[in-house]
Amino acid sequence: MLEIQREGHQAAPHLSCIGSTPDSIRSILKQYQAHGIRHLVALRGDLPSGMARPGTFRYANELVEFIRAETGDWFHIEVAAYPEYHPQAKSPMEDLLAFKRKLDAGANSAITQYFYNFDAYAHFIDECQALGIDVPIVPGIMPISSYSSLARFSDNCGAEIPRWVRKKLESYGDDTLSIHAFGLDVVSSLCAKLLASGAPGLHFYTLNQVELTTTLWQRLGLSRRY
């Protein structure tokens, strides 16, 4: 992140509860402040296999609260949101209340898990507004580069691949060009609909494959933002 900052781009480091202690987070925050970084993403994170406890901070709201106590309003803090609900949530309302706790702790905005169902995002925004939540909630976008990878990621994180999209991708087998072309059509249509509905921006999960993301924002007529 410091290299990105030195190149003149806006950096948004991700801080996770996993394995973190107050001292380690405090040290990181001081380093970021010294380099003029003012944007953070605070996450609970996923426990590695065999790890029983995440660390001192159990949930993202505890991490957000600590950052605010240590640094005041220095950082703009983003947190995660789940339009299709977190796979470990006991109920949709429990998941919404967990999200609200992160905002009540001091988060400024949110980035969602990726999704392909526009209605899931629209319904989630309606439910948030009903709870009095009015922060920017930026939809997460996952370009489609590989069906097998996408299916594996989606099964792990609870993101639904609509049946018609899944069946179409399955039909292409190992035809990467067709998968990319179809994926670009699906995702660019979703992005256009989100922006037209008033979404505050788009957050692309590039997975270090920038080409598809570049094509998407060119199709949409967007300017790049780091």
UniProtKB/TrEMBL annotation:
It comes from the Bacteria. GO terms for cellular component: cytosol. CDD domains: MTHFR. The keyword Flavoprotein applies. It catalyses: (6S)-5-methyl-5,6,7,8-tetrahydrofolate + NAD(+) = (6R)-5,10-methylene-5,6,7,8-tetrahydrofolate + NADH + H(+). Signal peptide: none annotated. Pathway: One-carbon metabolism; tetrahydrofolate interconversion; Amino-acid biosynthesis; L-methionine biosynthesis via de novo pathway. Its cofactor is FAD. One of its GO terms (biological process) is tetrahydrofolate interconversion. GO terms for molecular function: FAD binding; methylenetetrahydrofolate reductase (NADH) activity. Keywords: FAD, Flavoprotein, Oxidoreductase. Belongs to the methylenetetrahydrofolate reductase family. This is Methylenetetrahydrofolate reductase. It comes from Candidatus Accumulibacter phosphatis.
